[in-house]
Amino acid sequence: MLQSKLFTRTRKEAPKDEVSKNAQLLIRAGFIDKLQAGVYTYLPLGFLVLKKIEKIIREEMNAIGGQELLMPALQPKELWEKTGRWNSMDDLYKLTDANGKEHALGATHEEVVAPLVKQFVSSYKDLPFSVYQIQDKFRAELRSKSGMLRGREFIMKDLYSFHRDENDLSIFYEDVKNAYRKIFKRAGIASMTHLTLASGGSFSEYSHEFQTVTEAGEDIIHICKNCGVAINEEMIAIQKDCPECGGKSLETRKAIEVGNIFQLKTKYSDPFELKYKDETGKENPVIMGCYGIGLSRLMGAIVEVSNDENGIIWPDEVAPFEYHLIGMSGGDGEAPRQAYEFYEELTKKGHTVLFDDRDIGAGEKFKDADLIGVPQRIVISSKTIEEGRVEIKRRDEKESRLVEREELLA
Ligand code: ATP
Ligand code: MG
Description:
Elements: H1 21-28, E1 32-36, E2 39-42, H2 44-63, E3 67-68, E4 74-76, H3 77-83, H4 85-88, E5 93-96, E6 102-105, H5 110-118, E7 129-138, E8 153-163, H6 166-186, E9 193-200, E10 204-213, E11 219-224, E12 230-232, E13 250-265, E14 275-277, E15 283-285, E16 287-294, H7 295-305, E17 307-308, E18 311-312, E19 323-327, H8 334-348, E20 353-356, H9 362-372, E21 376-380, H10 382-386, E22 389-394, E23 401-404, H11 405-409
Parallel strand pairs: 3-7, 9-12, 19-20, 19-21
Antiparallel strand pairs: 1-2, 4-6, 5-6, 7-8, 8-16, 9-10, 10-13, 11-12, 11-13, 13-16, 14-15, 17-18, 21-22, 22-23
């Protein structure tokens, strides 16, 4: 992509009312724009990152057999009354249309998915299976000062699984746990993301969350120094020992929940009478699990943990581009010409490149490159041309090095 054609620009200052680091950096660098508190537009750069995150999640969900679908956000009141959540869910957006009919804007999709799959499940032979979507969610969050970490309209991957018994659910539950580990590893935040035990309410002893350690987080977790598993303080009374490995040393940190996995069991199959017949013809309730990841929150969490005083540092697999190419202007114009040629060659080879072809000073180009945070910066100047090479620097390293053009193209 030619940077001169990008309709957005970087900004020196973030909006005054934006206090979170993730939103400040994402807005200044031109990834997102704020429409109102907790509601953002994904600008072209932010959209590229979102698609990268989506790709990772989609691949890992498909790998464990998840079938992708897309459910509506506009949902009839009756479904929410069936589960009691029309009245009990404080952050549910409710609206009345011109015909006087009431709707909920989907905050989550158990109320849609349970009656949906009911049409297709009758026998044990129809189980197990799982469905997921990547979709907009709406929640009237009280606090919305955390930028992408807490949206009022945000993007979630929600997976729902359906089983004949709890044993079958627990097998799939482990598959999801492993898929989540892969997702957070590919998203570049594995080292600060901890499997966390949280209270499972009345359904099971623990549910599991994936918590990313950051000062911007709203949860307090106690991380076992021995096995790395954490306990969420909000829900489980503080313990001295790690419930997972018995480790004696726990470290207290602030963290943000980037994903969770939950054994719903019959909580939603009961109100919707979602049942199947077993081998003997006996009717049993379908056992359900649900598993969420906030994509927009994940984008914000990555920025919170991966930045420096100059801007964002994108991990490779979620970065908007592989390379940020800068052609130094001045001289006889040879550097910009060769840079453009190199841009075309790299692109032809299938690499993704943001080419700063703007007619501005080098200092400004370098500043923008640091702010935007593409993992590798390539500079072509009259000096590098003389040596027949290009200068390359990783965003997360201080030193640049000179490499042969052919080496990069290979
Ligand atoms: P929290 O305790 O942070 O409010 P939650 O328990 O309400 O989270 P779930 O309803 O289980 O979260 O949603 C699943 C996932 O969706 C969460 O793990 C998180 O990644 C994401 N998520 C939840 N609320 C938001 C929000 N307001 N903005 C962005 N992502 C969110
Ligand atoms: Mg919540």
